[in-house]
User: Fold this.
Amino acid sequence: MSDLLQDLRYAVRTLARSPVFAAAAIVILALGVGFNTTVFSLVDAVVLRPLPGVARPGELWEIEAKRTSSVFSYPSYRDLRENSLFSSLAAYGHRALAVSGDGAAERVRAAVVSGNYFDVLGVRPPAGRFLRPGDEESGETLAVLSHGLSQRRFGRSAEAVGKLIVLNGTPFTVVGVAPPGFRGAGFGTPTDLWIPIGAWPRVATGALARLDFHRRGWSWMTVFGRLAPGISRSQAQAALDVAARDEQRLYPQATPDDYRIGLRLLTQAAAGAGHPADPVRFLAFLLGAVAVSLLVACANLANLLLARAVARRREIAVRQALGAGRGRLVRQMLTESLALSLAGGAAGLAVANWSLALLSRVRLPGDVALGSFGAALDFRVLAFALAVSMATGVLFGLLPALQATRFALLAALKDDGPGRRRRALLPGALVAAQVALCLILLSSGGLLARSLRNALAADTGFEARGVALASVQLGVARYDAARAWTFATAAARAAAALPGARSAAWAGMLPLGGDREVESVELPGEAPGQRQAVAATAVGPAYFRTIGLKILAGREFEETDLPDGAPVAVVNEAAARRFWPGRNPIGQRLRIYGAERTVVGLCRDSLFQTLRDPHMPQVAVAIQQVGGDGLLAAMTLLVRFPGDAGAASASLRSAIAALDPNLPPFGPRTLEESMGGQLVPQRFGSALLGLFAALTLVLAAVGIYAVVAGSVARRLREIGIRLALGAEPARLFRMVLAQTAAPVLAGIALGLPLAAVAARALGGFLFGVAPTDSATFGAAVAVLALAGFAAASFPARRAASLDPMTAVRHE
Assistant:
């Protein structure tokens, strides 16, 4: 221990004598360790611990119903619950509800759950009680609040128990509060409250109010549970296959012919594996990028330590002459490296805290916020940061320490000997490694940047800029169809009257929002039952004018298209080509949404679900003519403003609140922000990889500079002799650059195949550019070559301008 303390004191004194080197090393490590710590905190929250507060989460299994969107009907769940395969089985389904009463009205994410939901998860209430099996079908209006909702509505969790909370206009009694951090069993946005299945009819609205939860054909519940003792996954899967065949035989009308039941760990489902947002893949992408950056930082620091060892070779030789063994010297130098890495790790925690706050605002496709997973710098993350800091110190310090203590004593004292050339090979190898890793980030970032540029320049068919949004769900506020149409008309007029507003319209589904509704169309005169699939949407008057989608013929919907009037539709060019080739679609008829409708307008083709989708037939119907289901479901009010619409969101929310203070608008934003979910991988990936690529490029340039400067320092006498014998300075300049080119070219040769592999892994994120795009790879290589030339030119110019006599006398 005394030797360790002595080594540590000596390391601190040594580093204090080189403040510039120490500061540079700490900054490099702070960035590398900080970014890795940030991503690990996300991986820990999303992948390693996706079910906070749940007891023994690794024993929970989610049961998947294939071909039915992975969910079950309530009767199917009850059948499975009677199976002896599981010691316990629970179910839930997510629904949006409106909370009103005391405080501002708000829209919350609720879970309709079985009575044993919390028992199966093994969660205990900090206040009150949880739901019980007897509450499942009792019909009692009971609710369990999340910790966050109880804080917002009642101030303290204990004060919420026993209070009334109004959900969709129905009073519910709060019986308990969930512990802090508990998010529920699902993926994505945390659940705000839980109600029993039997209470669902009291809050159901619209089409859902007409559905009986005892109906076997209505699949809406996610089922999970724990296997019985002694039951393996393979045994459970075999028994579930039998259960699936039995259900298909007993209830053929409610189950498809290829109905199957599968198992997967609930932790995988809760982490979003297989979800369109796919945060596991997104985080793997981030983790790879920050790991590459840290490796480049380690190689760079190793090169800096090697260059520093050149200046310390006499000191090391003298200590060897005084009896210090090689192991003792290696330990001393490793102590210096570890002191640096720990200081850098401590600074990295500040970087991690800042970057975690930044990343928590990122929204993945599917409108899933990374911040909803609750990533934080807890004990596990701090332990990871400490482990990474120490491993980094060993990684960048061990090779320089071994190399610096390998040379012969007399040769070191004379600064000569055959070991000099061998010592010069390692810095070149480290430079080649930095160049190869930097090329991976440069090319990947370039591909994503080109994808983002192509996506932003894509012709969507409409104009998204300048459109503000606010969504409502009138059904949760207990509107009926007639009242909903009155409100929708008044809200659209009020929004259109806002200062600067040009038009306003309602839409049931936003373009390029990631969702698409596919409906069947029947044409008059075709054989009965012959249907064709189209992308369908319900929109209000002035919708096409508001989003800038051009009407090519006919007209768009108007307020005179009343709910009880003649049903009308607008089709796009693709639909006209498919259904009425060579004919005018205006006046044609088609049957969709249960009614025969007259085509009154032809609009331009536009992208609807994703940027990758080809133009497909689309049919728009008047939202007021779809019945109550159209107006009572979630719908969005769009308002066009000149220029940027971001500042208008608050005004739009106020206009809606003025009409109904108890109606909670949600998602105030712009159409551009709504579409931004389509570009999260490209936008965030190009920015992140651009940042890391710039950082690694600077580090690689510093590494090249250090290697060339060290080489020039070791060869000063040789250079002086060459100059004294008449060598041209320009020739010496080229000679130094030529020696630098070897590791740079080796790194490029090594990095190109690795970059190609990384580009193929990014294939799913690319838009309008091939993974093997030669222009992107050529630009990355050119940038690296230029950076290498610039970094090497400074010490090369110094070598060419040396005074021969000064160089010859150099010790």
